[in-house]
């Protein structure tokens, strides 16, 4: 059995990130990110379906993968954090099972990402452009960390997280 290597790259910066609001599915980038640096020519490339992820990798041959889609934030899409009901936001921040926005809970997102990591990738090298929430969920899965850790991870634009899998997922620092 050969190992699987997965690099998750966060999409480039959006206006939503700049002003502190949840993104819309068709949220564009503030500006083109430029070259993503040294990327493997042997890797297979994937992208989340949202516009901001696809724009981050314009010019590369990528396959859009629904498993990398962002968390469905329901009625909170496009909403500034300051305009949300404070009680509902606090519930969402402390209870991974909560979905006061009517969309996907953090627990459901983490389960979806874990299933994707465990079943969607063949052996070899993969590079995927996705979202901060998806990267957080992948980190929790690889580490076997509790869902309560989700809100303690910051993933800035264009951040990279490396994983390897040979019998189990491992977080790989480079």
UniProtKB/TrEMBL annotation:
Gene3D superfamilies: Phosphoglycerate mutase-like. The keyword Translocase does not apply. Pfam families: His_Phos_1. Its EC number is 3.1.3.-. It comes from the Bacteria. GO terms for molecular function: hydrolase activity. Keywords: Hydrolase. The keyword Hydrolase applies. This is Histidine phosphatase family protein.
